[in-house]
Every structure is written in structure tokens, then in C-alpha cells.
Prior knowledge:
Blueprint: H1 6-21, H2 25-38, H3 43-55, H4 59-72, H5 77-89, H6 93-106, H7 110-116
Amino acid sequence: MPERSPETHVIDFRAAEQLLAARDPRGAIRLLDPVITAHPENTAARLLRARAFFLAAQLRSAELEFGIVLEREPANAYAHFALARTLERAARPDEALRHFRLAAALDPRPEFVEAARFVSGGGGGRG
């Protein structure tokens, strides 16, 4: 097998994004594994692989990968939200809620706030 170049890794990363969009998470994982082996510090590739693991129902691998992303980027709201979805799917609701709330605190997107159960029935603003 020929040696992989940085350009090849970029191409593989972009192809993995396309495979994930086409609902082929296992294909995306196969492309991302050598990228991450060559560039273990690449958080974007790790986040993409974590999403692929989640979609492939490889929840433990997804949890580990999201955890690595959060070690490096503790303020990454999306990673907290995605980890929460992973934990929720793994029937660990208390742990999931903690990460949903961290995601909502970091980025008050409506879907993050709703998942965090911060929405109350009383006195909010309208608009």
C-alpha cells in the first residue's frame, strides 16, 4: 500500500463526510481510522469519527471519541450534546442530562435547551 500523504488524508476526511451524509457510517470510519492514526491530534476528524460511531450504533466507541474531543475542547457544545445523545441511547439518562445541560449552557440553541429540560411553562419572554 502506498504511503498516505497529508493531501490524501484531507481527501479521505472529505470523503468520510460525504459517506456520513449518505448514511454509510462504517465506510466513514474505515476512511477516518488511518487519518486519525496519522494525525491523532485532529479534533475535527475525531468528532466526525465519533458521529460515525454513533450512527453505526457503536455507542462505546462513540462515547470514547466524544470524550477525547471534550478533553481537548471542553467548551464544545456540540460534542457535549452528541455525547448526551450517545449516553441517552445507551440508557444512561442521568449522565446524558448532565451533558445536555452543559451543551445548553455553552450554546443556547433551541434543541440544546429543550434536551436540557430548561424550558419552563412560566414567565419567559415572547418573540
